[in-house]
Design brief:
Layout lengths: L2 H22 L5 H11 L7 H24 L3 H21 L3 H19 L8 H5 L8
Helix pairs in contact: 1-3, 2-3, 3-4, 4-5
């Protein structure tokens, strides 16, 4: 058993579960979550309607991307989508000048980068099962 493959699988699973739960706990209070985001961003340059729409979509995007990452399906696309989601969150967090939160988000950025960079070590995922002779996607 390759330690790198095990470490990568555990990191991928942990990040995926984190995202799934992050998204799903917001669904029952979706409108309140989106309203709160729009209210928080009122002093910024972002249009309130755009922030509200982002708040309505974000929990579902987090849960879907998290599920794909957790099971290791379409990893390249899922990890890129998660990283791009994070870029949007970092931008908003910087506009709000919430530097402590931004520091935490940069840790997530490192996790995405590490998982993207180590796709060659993937052995324990649905992508690996679907195509055992090569990484899941070009």
């Amino acid at each position: 058993m390759d330690d790198r493959a095990v470490a990568r699988a555990l990191l991928r699973l942990t990040l995926g579960i984190n995202l799934i739960v992050h998204g799903l706990v917001r669904v029952p209070k979706l409108t309140a979550f989106a309203d709160g985001m729009a209210r928080d961003f009122q002093p910024t340059i972002l249009p309130s309607a755009l922030v509200h729409a982002f708040g309505l979509v974000l929990p579902f995007a987090e849960a879907a991307v998290g599920a794909l990452i957790a099971v290791g399906l379409f990893q390249r696309i899922a990890l890129a989508a998660g990283a791009l989601m994070l870029v949007a969150l970092v931008f908003g967090t910087a506009l709000l000048q919430r530097w402590d939160t931004l520091t935490q988000q940069m840790v997530y950025a490192l996790l995405y980068a590490a998982l993207i960079a180590t796709r060659a070590w993937d052995r324990w995922s649905l992508d690996a099962v679907r195509s055992p002779s090569r990484p899941a996607e070009p």
